[in-house]
Amino acid sequence: EEEIKQKVEEEIKRKEEEEIKRQKDEEMRRKKEEETKQKEEEEKVRSSVQPRSNTPGGGTSSAVFTPITCTESICKYMVKAGGCCYRYGLDINKYNVLAVAYDQYSVYLYSEANKTEEKLCTCQYYVYCLAWNQQGTLLAIGGGHNSNTNNTIQVWDIPNRKITKRLKINDINQTCYCLDWKGDTITAGTDQYIYQWNINDQDNDQDTQGNKTLLPRNT
User: What keyword terms does UniProt attach to this protein (predicted)?
Assistant: First the structure.
């Protein structure tokens, strides 16, 4: 009787161990599937934000980006960014796609991976600053006012190549010199004010938003 009892207990223990192992194997399988799915989605995003050539026949041109032989590890590319380099902004995202303001009104994208450049847009104002969000999919563009247009911050959805938001700066005489992201919040610095918007706020568009100024400068 003791022997039978012992065998039963051993069988129960064996089945429990098998079940534990099965659960662990299943958990590992699910984890690998999730990791694979995440990598595939990340690769799709990486591919979607890469520049698409504007030049005939594809490829890159020397109009904006000039690769140079590096003698120091700190420099990889020389970027021509308009007449006064210090005036025009640039930013690079997590996928190493460089956005640069060029020729005052234009914004270009450049990828080191595929050596392709793309003219993203031509604005109606001087472009002084650019900023990618943390995900590397949205690009904010800001600059100087122009009497022929509303003064706005453009937010581009780069994978779909379209403007997803226009954030109005109420005073057309203000020039945006810097932009920064924190999650879904964009902060812009102008001549006299700091502006802040949440891009998920439906009221934040050029037609309906109120004055979103913070920290006015003492004059």
Answer: Repeat, WD repeat
